Amino acid sequence: MTDEHGQRVLFGKAPFGNRGYDTAEVDAFCDRVAAAFRGRATLTAADIREHEFSTAARGRRGYDRDEVDDYLDRICVELESVRRGAEPSAAGDTLPLTPEDIQRLRFSAPPTGSTGYDADEVHVFLDRIAATLAHAGSNGLTSADVRAVDFAPALAGAPACHRDEVDAFLDVVVRMLTAEEASGRS
After folding, report:
1. What Cα–Cα distance (Å) separates residue 21 from each residue in 26, 89, 167?
2. Of 8, 45, 80, 125, which has the fewest Cβ atoms less than 10 A away?
3. How many CB atoms lie within 10 A of CB 176?
4. What CA–CA distances, in Å, run from 180 to 37, 41, 99, 152, 165?
5. DSSP H/E element including 120
6. CB of 68 within 8 A of CB of 29?
7. Which bin fits 61, alpha (ψ -120 to 50), beta or left (φ > 0)?
8. 77-121 pLDDT tens trace
């Protein structure tokens, strides 16, 4: 299997005692992701987030779920970047988000019958993330701050954001801030 950059994507096996995701399904889906980046298939971030993989057959260790999920989280953000006309980053790199990226970001509405996050709360927090990216220093958000955020559910009829999309994006922000903190730039 190759990623959108034509490089081999390697997922580790699931930990012992955990069957993980079916390898053939993950490989086929990643081929579909690669085709979308080459313009040969249509795939949205919502399609990726809503896709569910089967568990590997009994007696088999499939792919590590966390590794696959992390990869697909990064791909969702990159797919959105490509949709906006930006170049995708090298595979595996932490995406260098800018305040402008945050300001352009839009999340889907939650699926019918599901409660999403309160859109106003999400947008206020996105503003805080953008401010952190614009002004590096001790007054910005930390990875722990982003991990700890807890959005209220949207009230019936109020604007709402798709929970999985918001959570996956925040995972990307946490990884980026953690890398910056580890390098001493925060």
Report:
1. 7, 26, 21
2. 8
3. 18
4. 28, 35, 16, 28, 23
5. helix 119-134
6. no
7. beta
8. 776 665 555 554 444 444 467 787 787 777 888 888 889 999 999
